[in-house]
Inverse folding.
């Protein structure tokens, strides 16, 4: 069949259109990754991260998906999703779970993206301890995003109501319990103090233990070490909070009580400074104190978090890596500071006067907190398959201690026995 010149031209146009169509579709179908999280209260943070990343990377899209209301539920849901092949592309997870995710081959190493040279990560501003928190063996499995440490929130109006006259808030456990008992004696619905002993991964217990110079397991991770004198001191400190709290409250109830101005002292993560300061503004004078360190060699336990890669798709991996870098960049770190009480982990950014000034303007209470980073490590997770169950049983035992249903020494022995059994 012979085609006329016009037919040939039309055929060429049609062919060109056919070839061009897939390209148009690919341009419209931007690479999209889904990142799971367990922080439904941080929607503003996640939304700004997503829009900020897309603004810098218009050809890429990030979507966040809630999969729990805290780190432990998120981990459990992640482990279940891995079994049924329903993992998202990435996750915002506690750094302490890097080992669990790596041992089960759920998370993907990211060494190839920075040529396997840790100096390239340090050049981004990440500290060696924070990088090590995402390292298992010779592989690095994610990038840190932020961290926090426990601090003491004080309602100075209530403290002064019972005669506390120092300009700075209480700095020792003895001072905290003494003034807390006086506030508790006011009666009514007034509470002397509350400590968030049920925090994820037994985090507060870990900090109490470390502040007395103890540790959860020996260096070889072959035997528990929290059942010594330091562990007993930690539980005895918790028990004294049962003397100054007039109600057996959940964490949410205790936070609401402090924000309402009816609790004198509340011990929780520094990540809560933004919301607590907002609640206190115009209602009572808020002051923040450092977590007490009874032992000169005591230390604190941070609660770092970051992003991990699950997807094995090379194209999606590129998007995940670009997002990880954005989150760790000065822009991503400032988004973290603006929308939460978490502390940035990019040391290069913190050393920049403009960034530091903006950061402390947003979170002025962090000036004293940042100083404690020098003695702060990252939290510990028990090896094996029963990590979550171990810390859940610990939380139950600590509840019995705080409510004076069980004496500290008895509870410590029970915690040790249960932990050894679950470790196998």
């Amino acid at each position: 069949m012979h085609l006329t010149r016009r037919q040939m031209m039309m055929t060429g146009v049609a062919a060109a259109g056919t070839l061009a169509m897939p390209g148009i579709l690919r341009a419209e179908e931007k690479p999209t990754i889904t990142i799971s999280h367990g922080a439904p209260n941080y929607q503003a943070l996640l939304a700004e991260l997503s829009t900020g990343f897309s603004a810098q990377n218009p050809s890429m899209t990030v979507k966040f998906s809630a999969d729990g209301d805290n780190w432990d539920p998120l981990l459990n849901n992640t482990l279940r999703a891995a079994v049924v092949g329903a993992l998202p592309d990435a996750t915002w997870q506690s750094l302490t779970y890097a080992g669990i995710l790596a041992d089960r081959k759920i998370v993907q190493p990211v060494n190839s993206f920075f040529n396997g040279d840790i100096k390239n990560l340090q050049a981004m501003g990440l500290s060696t301890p924070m990088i090590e928190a995402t390292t298992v063996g010779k592989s690095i499995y994610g990038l840190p995003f932020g961290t926090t440490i426990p601090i003491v929130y004080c309602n100075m109006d209530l403290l002064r109501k019972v005669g506390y006259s120092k300009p700075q808030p209480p700095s020792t456990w003895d001072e905290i319990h003494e003034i807390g008992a006086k506030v508790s004696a006011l009666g009514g619905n007034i509470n002397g103090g509350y400590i968030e002993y049920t925090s994820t991964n037994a985090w507060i217990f870990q900090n109490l233990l470390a502040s007395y110079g103890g540790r959860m397991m020996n260096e070889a991770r072959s035997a528990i070490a929290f059942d010594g004198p330091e562990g007993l001191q930690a539980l005895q400190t918790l028990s004294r909070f049962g003397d100054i709290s007039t109600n057996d409250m959940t964490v949410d109830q205790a936070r609401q009580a402090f924000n309402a101005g009816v609790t004198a002292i509340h011990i929780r993560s520094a990540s809560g400074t933004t919301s607590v300061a907002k609640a206190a503004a115009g209602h009572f004078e808020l002051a923040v104190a450092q977590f007490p360190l009874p032992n000169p060699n005591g230390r604190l336990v941070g609660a770092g978090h970051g992003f991990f890669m699950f997807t094995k798709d090379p194209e999606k991996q590129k998007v995940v890596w670009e997002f990880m870098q954005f989150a760790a960049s000065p822009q991503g770190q400032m988004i973290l500071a603006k929308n939460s009480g978490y502390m940035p982990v990019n040391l290069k950014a913190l050393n920049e006067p403009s960034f530091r000034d903006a950061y402390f303007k947003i979170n002025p209470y962090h000036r004293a907190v940042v100083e404690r980073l020098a003695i702060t490590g990252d939290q510990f997770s028990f090896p094996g398959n029963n990590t979550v169950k171990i810390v859940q049983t610990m939380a139950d035992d600590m509840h019995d201690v705080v409510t004076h249903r069980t004496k500290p020494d008895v509870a410590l022995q029970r915690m040790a026995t249960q932990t050894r059994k679950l470790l196998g």
In short: DSSP finds 19 helices and 14 strands in the chain. Residues 297 and 377 are 13 Å apart (CA to CA).
